[in-house]
Amino acid sequence: MLTLGLAGGLDPVYDCRYDAPQYFTYDAAAVLVEDGQVVAAIEEERLNRVRRTNKFPFDALRACLRQRGVSLGDVDRIAYYSGEEVANLLVGRLRQAFPELAGIPDARGLLRAAIQREMRCEIDPARIVFVPHGVTHAVSAAAMSGFEQALVYVIDNEGGVFTATSDKGCRSCLTPRAELSPEKSLGELCHRTIRALGYSPFEEAEAMELAPHGDPAARRDAMRGVYTLLPDGDYELAFQNLAGALSGVPGRLRGEPVEQAHRDVIAALEEAISEIVLHVLRHHRTRSGLRRLCLAGGGAQICAVNSRILASGLFDEVFVQPAAHDAGCALGAALHASDAPPRRAPLDHVAFGADLGTADTVLPALRRWGAFVAAERSAEPAREAAGLVAAGSAVGWANGRSELGLVALGRRVIVADPRDERQREALNALKRRAPHRPLSVAMLAEDARELLMLPCPAEQLRWKSFALRARRERREALAAALHADGTVRARVVLERADPRLFALLSAFKALTGVGALLTTSLDHGAEPPAETVDDVVALLLTSGLTVAFVGDVLVRERSASLEDRLRMAVELPRSTQVCRARGWIDGARVGDAWELRTSHDRALRRKISGAAYDVLAQADGERSIAALRGGAGADVADELWALWTERLVRLWPAERP
After folding, report:
1. β 547-550/553-557 pair status
2. Alpha carbons within 13 A on the beta-carbon side of 233
3. What's the pLDDT score for residue 413?
4. Are 487 and 307 a contacting pair, CB within 8 Å?
5. Could you tell me if 367 and 649 are in contact, meaning their C-beta atoms sit under 8 angstroms apart?
6. Distance separating alpha carbons of residues 597 and 107, to the nearest angstrom
7. Which stretches make up the Carbamoyltransferase domain (predicted)?
8. Residues 357-400: pLDDT tens digits?
């Protein structure tokens, strides 16, 4: 039985018709499950190249079908990550705003129409299944944990506590214990607080990483006015009191400097969330008697909270779903609709995406870029990469199938020397991130036991879910990854789960005596992690990263001439529009103005020159810059290259097929 799970909005990437804020969705993904086993899973952002995309996962859907070699007609069920009643309420609101939807009676009809229009095939509406959002989160964690019995806590806008058992199918493996309504949403508490400090909801990771730099005591009493702990593991949130908790804190606009008062608020917020979460878990742990815990939902991505749960001793084992965010709901929806028994073996990896292939397929793809990169087969990529890292280089490491989830694990990462504290600043600059943001480490199990104070067996730390305290006498080995509170975000790499990264760690240990590597996702902040060979090359040419391994192939940036750049083909991404308008220029005169806009960020208006407009208005992905504008020179080439760096246009060798 084939089941397709979907998460995301309603629009294709080139449209923004139904993207009104009150209908906002994000983290689009598709997952294909066959007889209860994941055969393909990929987030839409990896393909449409829009971070945290709220578009419908059409590209991801196609990629999953290609991976299995089937058509949409072969799929038995199509599962969406929302309950049908909730989805119908959404459609009712949409119908008021968009009269053209008058003929579509409900969510099933709208979803069917969207899929049929884009995929150009008929869909039997009976094949469409709606799964409540909180249930998709819970199933995604319980079914992949390998636990026979566990408590499941979904920390999300629509969350709850469940008991899970593996002796039933995924549809019936959960027994609800407590429902947590949006009025009790810890995610909403987090988002309201960080918005007041100048952060967007998508910047919660950056905001929460300020907590180790703050003093929770400075705002503890004020923050405690926002929540009340009740009997039986219950609690209340008083969002109206948040203004009091923020009283006296300096206002901050996005991008402005962070002050100590802002750090103190975040520290108090993290402490409050931890106290509430532990209050809920103590009650349900006692009442259920269960010693294993599964976590999912956006709130399960706060490592410090997860770490306090782990250190509490309440549970023998804690499994945090690696794709705990909404993309993981596509997985939960597919598993729930398939109703296969949950897996009994613990999850080892989430490498379910597209495969980069062998050197025999990678090298031909790289030859097209011959003017821009040098590529050669490496006989010992792990040993060679380890040598470069030990010598001070940051190295891209891409191989095999891409991984599901916001956290980079091992298939698409940048690695560097964890002993060199300067690497933190260098990698944060490369990725255009705030200097305070910490990096994570991947390590061998024996090194984890030596370098960290472990509250559980090292083999349980397979995901980057916890911030663990480094042993004081060995902190120099992890200097670049240390948080301000002496912890590091770490994961243990097992050979069976990721043999290539395990080999790289072993080779680095042979050279340095340290079986750990600094890791971060293979991107530079302007787009999601690299998915394809072309994505890796684009990163090398526009980020400051100069060397990468794509499987067994070593790729290095090389200097290209102006003529080479002018011979590149140019194309607008499907999410980008080039616009020309006539109006006031700088409030002083009337004239022509040219700009780029996108379907995913309505506030973005990037001004461009008339010469760049002339090129982009004709761009078709086939003809070169020079051919599109006779006599184009360095100014146009430089402008288009800068736009490529921001991923507002795409460039590649014109001879690309």
Report:
1. antiparallel
2. 18
3. 98
4. yes
5. no
6. 30
7. 23-84, 122-335
8. 999 999 999 999 999 999 999 999 999 999 999 999 999 999 99
As beta bridge partners, residue 582 has 592
User: What is the spatial distance between Cα 28 and Cα 352, in angstroms, rounded to a whole number?
Assistant: 15
> For residue 642, what are the contacts with CB-CB under 8 A and spacing of at least 6?
none
Question: What per-residue string of b and e applies to 498-514 under the rule 16 or more CB within 10 Å gives b?
Answer: bebbbbbbbbbbeebeb
Q: Which two tokens stand for residue 47?
A: 């393909």
Q: Is 103 exposed, middle or buried (0-12, 13-18, 19+ CB in 10 A)?
A: exposed
What CA–CA distances, in Å, run from 209 to 12, 382, 430, 462, 555? 33, 32, 18, 21, 33
Q: Determine contact, residues 390/511, Cβ cutoff 8 Å.
A: yes
The residues, any chain, with a CB within 8 Å of residue 454's CB and separated by 6 or more, are 448, 461, 468
Q: Which of 172, 175, 152, 157 is nearest to 81 (CA)?
A: 157
Distance in angstroms (rounded) separating the CA atoms of residues 453 and 468: 7
The DSSP line for 518-579 is: EEEESS-SSSSPP-SHHHHHHHHHHSS--EEEETTEEEEE----HHHHHTEEEE--TTEEEE
Structure tokens at 515: 């079986």
CB atoms inside a 10 Å sphere around CB 120: 8
- Averaged pLDDT for residues 518-531: 96
CA angle 498, 502, 503 (to 5 degrees): 120
Quick one: average pLDDT of 553-563?
94
d(CA 137, CA 123) in angstroms, rounded, equals 26
The b-or-e profile of 245-263 (16+ CB within 10 A means b, else e) is bbeebeebeeeeebeebbb
296 contacts 324 by C-beta, under 8 angstroms: yes
Tell me the domains of the chain and their CATH numbers. 2-80+83-130 (3.30.420.40), 137-328 (3.30.420.40), 359-557 (3.90.870.20), 562-653 (no CATH)
Please tell me the pTM assigned to this model: 0.95
How many residues belong to the chain?
657
Side-chain half-sphere of 114: how many Cα atoms within 13 Å?
Answer: 26
Mean pLDDT of 469-486: 96
Selection from 571, 555, 572, 578 nearest residue 656 by Cα:
571
Provide, rounded to the nearest whole percent, the portion of the chain with pLDDT above 70: 98
Tokens found for residue 536: 């890796």
Helix (H) or strand (E) holding 266: helix 260-288
Q: Per the structure block, which two tokens stand in for 351? A: 């490498």
Helix (H, G, I), strand (E, B) or coil at 293: strand
